[in-house]
Design goal:
Distance between the termini: 23 Å
Largest sheet: 6 strands, parallel
Number of strands: 8
Strand content: 5-15%
Shape: globular
Mean pLDDT: 88
Strand order of the largest sheet: 2-3-4-5-6-7
Helix content: 40-55%
Low-confidence stretches: 1-8, 217-239
Length: 239
């Protein structure tokens, strides 16, 4: 993946693929989203997707985008359920590292192209998914549970180089099955453990190597802190 300019050390696609599990947060308010994101970062998670369903989401993005994860890597905070040009621009202005839509969203695609932003466009049919992949190399499959892992396997047979992120109705215990079917990463909205040690173990157990820049600095996704090192930590970390 090519390097992004600015403060990001690697492309969001590389980080998402290395992390393999992408938390998708639909919190009651911005403060809760910030607390939830901070706990995930403390557990070794680097990439988090907030959503426009959270009231005050722009403020939550702005407050979490400058943070770092437990390994000292800059957080990559994306925004999901983006379906309008207005929300796309507001998200990028707030510091979002990437945008995600639940279905084809031409307005968002146009803003992403205009701003040089990363956009993971949603789709369900093979045609919608192929169109998203042709545009940006990646696609969100939603609602993923309807087709199941076998659907992902069939998609990868005709789109072997696509970065596919199934989301919707998937539990944490099912992540490996979806990865084995060809998913680059799996979006999870519910079911992650609240206990810091258990949460850290989830990410440490799935993490793979990230990009060359991360490898050279020893901060790749697989660099791994022990679960005990993040237990009880919830403070915000800044670069």
């Amino acid at each position: 993946m090519e390097q992004l300019e600015g403060s990001l050390s690697c492309h969001p696609y590389a980080a998402i693929t290395a992390q393999r599990l992408l938390p998708v947060l639909r919190d009651a308010d911005a403060d809760e989203a910030v607390r939830h994101t901070t706990a995930l970062l403390a557990a070794g998670c680097r990439v988090v997707e907030l959503t426009t369903s959270t009231p005050g989401w722009a403020g939550a993005v702005a407050r979490t985008a400058p943070l770092s994860d437990a390994h000292g890597r800059p957080a990559l905070i994306g925004l999901g359920t983006v379906t309008t040009a207005e929300d796309a621009r507001a998200a990028l202005d707030a510091g979002a590292a990437f945008l995600v839509s639940p279905y084809p969203a031409p307005e968002v695609r146009a803003v992403a192209s205009e701003r040089g932003a990363v956009f993971i466009e949603g789709g369900f049919t093979p045609g919608e998914i192929a169109s998203a992949v042709r545009s940006s190399g990646a696609a969100k499959v939603f609602p993923a549970h309807v087709g199941g892992p076998r659907f992902i396997r069939s998609l990868k047979a005709v789109l072997p180089d696509a970065l596919i992120v199934p989301t919707g109705g998937i539990g944490p215990g099912e992540v490996r099955e979806w990865l084995a079917a060809g998913a680059a990463a799996v979006g999870i909205g519910n079911g992650l453990p609240a206990d810091p040690v258990e949460l850290a173990a989830v990410f440490a157990g799935l993490a793979g190597p990230c990009c060359g820049a991360c490898a050279r600095t020893g901060t790749g996704a697989g660099a791994g802190l022990s679960a005990g090192a993040v237990a009880g930590t919830g403070e915000e970390r800044r670069p």
